[in-house]
């Protein structure tokens, strides 16, 4: 066991502060990673502030992790000391259910092991995340970070990138396809960049005009403020709508924007129930779906694609001492577009 410095919450809904945690000794298939950068995801905030219930404490968040391999277990073959690697939202799964056999570990029927606040499948310890100096992870849940990517700006790709990439790939975003991205925040701005790089025609739907210039700079061909309603010319327009926001919206109004065989895919987690009028589905063979994160193989494909097309997140780099302020600013939508922590400051 090794002791490392970290930042976490010592109790339910308490502010983040410096804490000390332990990391396990290397197992046969483990990779030890010296963390360089870790992104702040909104789910970190929900978890740390108790929005999703109590956890074991202290709790160290962070699942957008980029670092350098420090050491490997004797059975590791895909990573070596000195490699730059990443870790995302999950650090284990059952490996034997149907989704796992397809590489879809997000949908593991026994539940994937979360990078933080999860229960280790081998020793039942509580997992601790990336707001720390080091992390030890199974080789199968570690991805390679391409050399051409800025490691700090690549960190949010381990969550925001794969969360948008997975449905864009599954629903065939590309040339000749019209994609709408609802919301231009930490998720949405990466989704715009990826969809545009895939060759899709991208429209951003946002509640105001404040981010119009950014939307176009990220690759959107059009930005629509929904403050005064949805324009008529967008009815029966989109092949795919990705809803990245976590507020309750008029599902029927969104469905009317889809053309034949169009899909509305929910990525955000709003508090209310999703009400879907059946007629809105049947009249254009539309569908409503949801999507979580994505598998490890899929995450590597996403990173390699981003390397070829120069896609990263727009970030603000901070020291660990600014964490609580960054949480407040994220909640108040005062970040363009993702905070990333310099892990040397833990």
Automatic annotation (TrEMBL):
One of its GO terms (molecular function) is zinc ion binding. The keyword Oxidoreductase applies. Gene3D superfamilies: Medium-chain alcohol dehydrogenases, catalytic domain, NAD(P)-binding Rossmann-like Domain. Its EC number is 1.1.1.2. It catalyses: a primary alcohol + NADP(+) = an aldehyde + NADPH + H(+). InterPro entries: ADH-like_C, ADH-like_N, ADH_Zn_CS, CAD-like, ER, GroES-like_sf, NAD(P)-bd_dom_sf. The keyword DNA damage does not apply. PROSITE patterns: ADH_ZINC. Its cofactor is Zn(2+). Keywords: Metal-binding, Oxidoreductase, Zinc. Residues 11-345 form the Enoyl reductase (ER) domain. Belongs to the zinc-containing alcohol dehydrogenase family. This is alcohol dehydrogenase (NADP(+)). It comes from Corynebacterium humireducens.
């Amino acid at each position: 066991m090794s002791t490392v410095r970290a930042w976490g919450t010592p109790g339910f809904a308490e502010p983040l502060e410096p804490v000390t945690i332990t990391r396990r000794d290397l197992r046969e298939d483990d990779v030890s990673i010296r963390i360089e950068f870790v992104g702040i995801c909104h789910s970190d905030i929900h978890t740390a502030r108790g929005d999703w219930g109590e956890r074991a404490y202290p709790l160290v968040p962070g699942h957008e992790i980029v670092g350098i391999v420090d050491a490997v277990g004797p059975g590791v073959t895909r990573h070596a000391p000195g490699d730059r690697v990443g870790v995302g939202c999950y650090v284990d799964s059952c490996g034997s259910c149907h989704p796992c056999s397809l590489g879809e570990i997000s949908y593991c029927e026994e539940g994937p092991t979360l990078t933080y606040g999860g229960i280790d499948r081998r020793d039942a310890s509580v997992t601790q995340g990336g707001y720390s100096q080091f992390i030890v992870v199974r080789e199968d849940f570690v991805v390679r970070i391409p050399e051409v990517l800025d490691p700090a700006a690549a960190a949010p790709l381990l969550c925001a990138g794969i969360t948008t990439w997975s449905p864009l790939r599954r629903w065939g975003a590309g040339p000749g396809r019209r994609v709408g991205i609802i919301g231009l925040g930490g998720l949405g701005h990466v989704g715009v960049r990826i969809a545009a790089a895939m060759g899709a025609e991208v429209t951003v739907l946002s509640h105001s005009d404040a981010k119009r210039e950014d939307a176009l700079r990220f690759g959107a061909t059009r930005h629509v403020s929904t403050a005064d309603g949805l324009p008529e010319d967008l009815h029966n327009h989109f092949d795919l709508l990705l809803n990245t926001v976590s507020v309750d919206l008029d599902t029927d109004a969104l469905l009317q924007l889809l053309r034949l065989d169009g899909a509305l895919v929910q990525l955000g987690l709003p508090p209310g129930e999703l009400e879907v009028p059946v007629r809105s589905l049947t009249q254009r063979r539309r569908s409503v779906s949801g999507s979580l994160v994505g598998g490890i193989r899929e995450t590597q494909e996403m990173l390699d694609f981003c390397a070829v097309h120069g896609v990263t997140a727009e970030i603000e780099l901070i020291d660990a001492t600014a964490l609580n302020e960054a949480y407040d600013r994220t909640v108040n939508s005062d970040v363009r577009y993702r905070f990333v922590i310099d892990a040397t400051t833990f």
